[in-house]
Amino acid sequence: MYSNSAERSLYSLLIWPCAPHWNTKDILESKPLVTPTKSLTLQHNSKEPQGPLKNQISILLQRTLEEDKKKCNPMNVDDEEKKKPSSSSTSKKKRKKMNRMKRMKGEASQGDDEKEKKERTVSPLESLPQENHLHILSYLNRKDLKRVGAVCKLFQTLALSKSLLVAPELICFHSKTTFNEDTLGIGLKMEFRENDGVLMNITSPLDLISKHAFYYEGVRKSIWGQPMSKWLPIYINKHHGNLSALQMAIQDIYQSHPNISPKTPNLFQWRALDMMSKLMNSIIVEIMKGNVHASIKALQGYCYFHRWMLFLVQQYPECLSELENQVQNFVKFDQYRHKYACPNLGEFLTKLSVLGPSGLTWNYIRDAVVQEAATRNVLWVLKQFPHLSNFEGISDSERIEKTWQANQVSCKLIMFHVFFLKNVVEKHGQRSLEEIGRLYDMNYGCCLEDNLEELLQKELFKIQEVATLREYCE
């Protein structure tokens, strides 16, 4: 019964003081005992146990007597067991009762949790917009951010956001000034036509430089020594977006070169939109050169200028209406597709980037753009392959192949415009312009999608692999 020797010794010590005339060995081995006729009295030399030990000994003696009685009278034991419910049925009932209580407790706790959620008041911190949280936390370094993230779940989520990881990189390459200390922008390199001063090309190294460093310290070269003649602010968030700085920059550019874009109205908002369209189109040319690192940097610049366009059409709603009319006219009427009405198709496509909520998507304008692009490219095809002007003696397959060879650069540029429209603009087409701008601000002007850089690399590879006109049309 008791296999452990220590346990046997303990029970021997407990039993013997109360019943020294019993054979403790028999008790421990569960042998039947004969109840003594004389009362259980202590011998004169034994001491009566006191306190808890006395209670334990009395309980043990009672159990021993009951077991002895059962063994001596097996018939009575069976009768008593019949009267009592079986242990298996008792255990089943207990389990059912416990399960029922657990279910009731679980339902109650779930109801309490839902009630608590409904009754829980929102803390002042949670009621603040997320961009305000991010703006406050942007003043902290990474070590302090880690400490703040340990305060609560809200701060932990904010401290791990992508925008705060990008924030330390948003500094002037020359003075190391942050975007919280001065307005940051980029330098521009502009090339003009000699006879009339029309802008032919505009590029940017996309290295961030502060307004003070450019205008007051005279910095005119990028971090890699590329020349910069003009400066343009970027839009990081609503605290950094400086409309007066943009107005000053646009005015400075047009004062130096008044014939940049002759067909653009002489108003700030139209000049600014035209400048953003030119920059976005030129950046796509840089992206299509294929260098992955430079392409990711250029994509970031593209997003900066797209954010400015969103801001401008919100500040000047009449511009948004006019852009919608231009796109509608381009699709419906041939005269609005001519060079005098639409000088550059790439710049025209950038206008679709702010028309997503209007429902003017790439699918709506696709046929008109592809047809007009093919018409305009005829000039370049004949310059490169003059013999194609003869309609006789040339097979259709050869004509198609030569046409693709002459047009593949411009066709691939259109393909990348479509990539941006589908993955950034149309993906958020259900949102308002204000909501899209808010997403940009929460990411400090970074791409709206976390995996957009990965998608960019894959898309560049796919576009570079396009080898026929059929693949382009598909």
Automatic annotation (TrEMBL):
InterPro entries tied to this protein: F-box-like_dom_sf (IPR036047), F-box_dom (IPR001810)
Signal peptide (from-to): none
Comp. bias regions, Basic residues: 91-103
Basic and acidic residues: compositionally biased ranges: 112-121
Superkingdom of source: Eukaryota
Region (Disordered): 68-124
Domain F-box span(s) in chain numbering: 122-158
This protein's name: F-box domain-containing protein
Species: Naegleria fowleri
